[in-house]
Amino acid sequence: MKFYCNKNDLNRALNNVSHSVPARTTSPILEGILIEVSEGNMKLTATDTNMTIETTIRVDGNESCSFVVPAKLFTTIVSKLPDEDIMIDYDSSKVKINIKCEGSNSEIVCFRSDDFPKIKVSEDEDIIYLSKEDVKKIIRKTAFSASADDFNGILTGVLLEIKEGNMKMVGVDPFRIATYNVEVKNNADVSVVIPAKLINETAKIISDEGEDKMSMSITDKKVILRFDNNRVIINTFAGKYIDYERILNKTGNINVRVKRSDLLKSIDRASILASAQNNNLIKFNISGDILCINSLNEEGNIEEKIEIIKEGEDLVIGMNSKYLKDALSVIDDEEIMMNMKDSISPCIIKPLKGDKYTYLILPIRLN
Question: CA 133, CA 214: separation in Å to the nearest integer?
């Protein structure tokens, strides 16, 4: 069976679904992409069994067929073809495809589609419509804070809550917390924990082009996201998420108002001497209207000074420079407020007004 498609459309679709092809697996079929051609459409599907991505493009052809093509090889070949229409000829008897584009001719041995995992989800019930921009923003500003250690179980996920016209995402690991809020135009009531690694991969394929709206539904312990010509299905975590609000409510009486960009640049310079071996340690010496940032090791010493507006007592506290940079890099505000209690209690970063975001970072004990 022969069918024709646009090279750029196919290349984009392959890049999208490749985000759910497992890097390592004992099942060779999962290293492939399911291709289903029918009624002028080609649907591409890839899965690692925890996340499934489907993308559909238009093709020119009247017949139907399905097969599984090795993902890495097929994607590499297509990416290097000229920007012209591609002809794909599937030979069902030999289970292989022939790919032609101008003077290029490639042949790939495939798998039969019957061996590919069947991804079944119930019919969507309550569909929530969201802005692609809001979804990308809320992921970027929180998912980095989720734990990367599988030992921490549910903390490798982000909590997504929607209620009373507000969408909040929360990322937590043993040393920090990130929360971000977005107003939404719906009355949904949702609380679900999504693997942070998988929602980050999803964010990479949410394009700025096309329709800004996307939809989300939750069924069979799965989150289903639809945008443009893509459908993403992610298995959610079971269990109760940490009571992060109880931790965030423990505020202190020291408030430091500072320009975000000045603080970020100073931390970045000071962290040149910080290292993972000492938990990326830098020292904050908060005194009067000056924040002094120090880092030192056997190679030297760096000191940075920034003007601040302070309420409360002076304080010396050790901080993780990487965690601070992670948080400050995703904040858009010109000025921020840092709240602290003492040298062993968390530093909480908030906007000057409201509660659009909150970032909590545990201090490092100083010798």
Answer: 10
Q: Does domain 2-115 have CATH number 3.50.30.60?
A: no
Helix axes 321-329, 260-270, angle to 10 degrees: 150
Please provide the average confidence, as pLDDT, over all residues in the chain. 94
Asked if the model's pLDDT at residue 231 lies above 70, the reply is yes
Cα separation, 287 vs 310, in Å, equals: 8
Which residue has 């899965």 as its token pair?
47
CATH number of 128-244: 3.10.150.10
CATH class entry, domain 250-361: alpha beta
Q: Please tell me the predicted confidence (pLDDT) of residue 278.
A: 87
Q: Is the pLDDT of residue 366 over 80?
A: yes
> Per-residue pLDDT tens for 331-363?
999 999 999 999 999 999 999 999 999 999 999
Please say whether the beta carbons of 295 and 321 come within 8 A: yes
Residue spans per domain, the chain: 2-115, 128-244, 250-361
Q: What are phi and psi of 16, to 5 degrees?
A: -65, -55
